[in-house]
């Protein structure tokens, strides 16, 4: 009996000791252990942050800076400021950039498309500065646009000093802010994936010495190593160490994983993949009702018709935790009536998607048809019907 009691006491002692180190039942354990100084995992579709580590700590981003550079390039093209086939001439300043480059020479010209390709695939500092000068007139003016855009996106931890990411005093951002600008680039300009998923390509240098073909190899190994990888941008300098904004998409779920100040080249990619694995293992993207689905009728006053259908404006994807086990529900908020004239596509309400009573997604409800204002004859006819 004494031996039995002694054994039981020993077991209880061990349990008590372990209990001081293990989380209590129901407490959430830290899902990931990362060596990178800062990290973030974001759902690109909704902007929901799924994991973060020191995500608001401002630090040098190296060439991940070029996410903002590319965003402003695509915005400028969209606004009609230039066309992709336009020629871009390389200045002495652009050609002088060190670090990763495609060895552009002063006076050399490349198309805007090829310059952008060099930035996205080969992380070319010279091409980034050449495009900055082409878009804004000077790199300084372009940097002003970069900082203005950062403010618009709510990037409160960010201050840019140059367009390429070379180490400079005061040139900083955070994993959270990198997530914001990466999401903006990939959601607004999905065509960037044409470059960010390309493993190898070429450009042709045309100089006074003649034409030479220069090979481009993507600095982002994720597109070789990770299923569904869609981008996005690597970066490394002496101060920044190893950084990466990595993106991948599977079954409609598009994730952005950011690591900053990883201690070495391999860990940068390993921990980005670890973040993405965590996201795909625990979350899924659900599709809502299709565009055009009828959700009710709204009375129309003084119109040629007395009602109009309220329909779903666009199919919406929203984020669901896989172990939640709950089905989504819908809730409609529709105007009691609208006054004619009503335009097709005019907002008349909102459709909410809920899980456990919490809103996880939404889209507008719009008028299915145009309803013109009733003319005098129609109004008189209706009045006569009411009287008789």
In DSSP terms, counting alpha (H) and pi (I) runs of 4 or more, how many helices? 11
Class by helix and strand content? alpha+beta
Rg value:
28 Å
- The N- and C-terminal alpha carbons lie at a distance of 103 Å
Work out the helicity level: 25-40%
Q: Approximately how much beta-strand content do the residues carry?
A: 25-35%
Low-confidence stretches: 1-30
The CATH architecture of the largest domain can be given as 3-Layer(aba) Sandwich
**CATH first level of the largest domain: which class?**
Alpha Beta
Read across the widest sheet, the strand sequence of neighbours is 14-16-17-12-11-15
Relevant CATH superfamily of the largest domain: DD-peptidase/beta-lactamase superfamily
Overall tally of domains: 2
**Overall pLDDT, averaged?**
89
What is the structure about, briefly put?
The protein has helices at 2-19, 66-78, 92-95, 112-122, 125-136, 139-152, 175-188, 193-196, 222-225, 265-282, 376-387; strands at residues 38-43, 49-53, 87-89, 109-111, 200-207, 210-217, 229-237, 241-250, 253-262, 283-287, 294-301, 307-312, 317-321, 329-334, 337-339, 347-355, 358-367.
């Amino acid at each position: 009996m004494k031996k039995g009691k002694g054994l039981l006491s020993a077991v209880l002692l061990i349990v008590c000791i372990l209990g001081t180190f293990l989380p209590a039942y129901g407490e959430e354990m830290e899902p990931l252990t990362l060596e990178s100084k800062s990290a973030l995992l974001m759902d690109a579709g909704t902007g929901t942050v799924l994991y973060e580590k020191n995500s608001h700590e401002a630090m040098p981003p190296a060439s991940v800076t070029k996410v903002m550079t590319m965003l402003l390039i695509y915005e400028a093209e969209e606004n009609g400021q230039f066309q992709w086939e336009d020629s871009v001439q390389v200045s002495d300043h652009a050609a002088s950039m060190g670090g990763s480059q495609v060895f552009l020479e002063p006076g050399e010209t490349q198309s805007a498309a090829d310059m952008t390709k060099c930035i996205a695939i080969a992380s070319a500092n010279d091409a980034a500065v050449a495009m900055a000068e082409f878009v804004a007139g000077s790199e300084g003016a372009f940097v002003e646009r970069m900082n203005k855009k950062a403010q618009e996106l709510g990037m409160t931890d960010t201050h840019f000093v140059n367009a390429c990411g070379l180490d400079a005093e005061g040139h900083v951002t955070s994993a959270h802010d990198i997530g914001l600008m990466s999401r903006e680039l990939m959601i607004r300009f999905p065509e960037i994936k044409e470059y960010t998923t390309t493993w190898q390509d070429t450009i042709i240098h045309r100089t006074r010495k003649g034409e030479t073909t220069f090979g481009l190899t993507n600095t982002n190994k994720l597109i070789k190593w990770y299923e569904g990888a869609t981008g996005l941008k690597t970066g490394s300098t002496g101060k920044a160490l190893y950084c990466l904004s990595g993106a991948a998409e599977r079954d409609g779920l598009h994730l952005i994983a950011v690591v900053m100040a990883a201690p070495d080249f391999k860990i940068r990619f390993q921990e980005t993949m670890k973040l993405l694995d965590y996201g795909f293992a625990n979350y899924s993207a659900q599709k809502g009702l299709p565009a055009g689905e009828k959700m009710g009728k709204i009375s129309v006053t003084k119109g040629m018709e007395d009602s109009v259908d309220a329909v779903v404006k666009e199919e919406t994807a929203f984020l669901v935790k896989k172990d939640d086990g709950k089905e989504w529900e819908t809730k409609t908020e529709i105007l009691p009536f609208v006054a004619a004239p009503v335009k097709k596509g005019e907002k008349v309400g909102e459709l909410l998607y809920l899980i456990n009573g919490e809103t996880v997604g939404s889209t507008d409800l719009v008028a299915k048809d145009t309803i013109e204002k009733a003319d005098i004859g129609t109004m008189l006819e209706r009045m006569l019907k009411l009287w008789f």
